[in-house]
Amino acid sequence: MTTEPVTIEIVSDMVCPWCWIGKRRLDSALEQLPDIAVERVWRPYMLNPDMPAEGMDRDAYLAAKFGAERLPRLHEPLAEIGRQEGIPFDFHAIARMPSSLDAHRLARWARSAGVQPAVIEDLFSRYFEKGEDISDPVVLLDVAEQAGMDAAIVAELLAGDQDSDLVRREDDLARRIGVTGVPTYVINQKWAVVGAQPAESWLEILRRVAAGEDLSAG
């Protein structure tokens, strides 16, 4: 078994429910593989890159995307999958579809602070469980503070446009290299895994990578 850590770059968006499901499933696999060192790095992908900074009414957004007639039962399958993964989705609590640009900026700074996984989990929870607006600087500052980041520094960064262009460039790069849906996982910069894979699949994938196998060999 290789002693080198496995690097997983996770291309995702905080307003994507499948991305939270995927995170929880990967978390479950990692808990069962304590002897395999894994470094996770979250990369930005904005499902709605043209979303205005103030966001928009979520029901109006969903009706335009999926059709108003589907809204009453739209989230039932996801809610059931969430329950199976220990995720208490509360889609009715979400009033607005936010821009996720600033959330991605915060996630980037959280990596530098060594708390990216905690910040990502909290952003998912606040949006999908509590219906909080994760484009609101007050919410983002509280997320940062709860994770142990310096709130004063984060407040100063959020007040400007630090790393906004960088997030947009990374989002564009993901699209140019072929990412069309999230979550997408890039393992050791060699192999891509698309979708919220079950924990059992991750167990097999990570064991093979740690053993030095070539995933492209089937």
Please tell me about this protein's structure.
It is built from nine helices and six strands, in the order E-H-E-E-H-H-E-H-H-H-H-H-E-E-H. It has helices at 17-31, 58-66, 76-84, 101-112, 116-129, 137-146, 151-159, 164-176, 199-210; strands at residues 6-12, 38-44, 56-57, 96-97, 184-187, 191-194. The chain has one domain (6-50, 99-217): Glutaredoxin (3-Layer(aba) Sandwich), CATH 3.40.30. The strands form two sheets. A four-stranded mixed beta sheet has the order 2-1-5-6. A two-stranded antiparallel ribbon has the order 3-4. With 218 residues, the chain is an alpha+beta fold. Helix 1 (17-31) crosses helix 9, helix 4 packs antiparallel against helix 5 and helix 6 runs antiparallel to helix 7 (151-159). Helices cover 47% and strands 12% of the residues. One of its GO terms (molecular function) is oxidoreductase activity. This is Disulfide bond formation protein DsbA. It holds the Pfam family DSBA.
Would you kindly provide a brief summary of this structure?
Helix content is 47%, strand content 12%. It is an alpha+beta fold and 218 residues long.
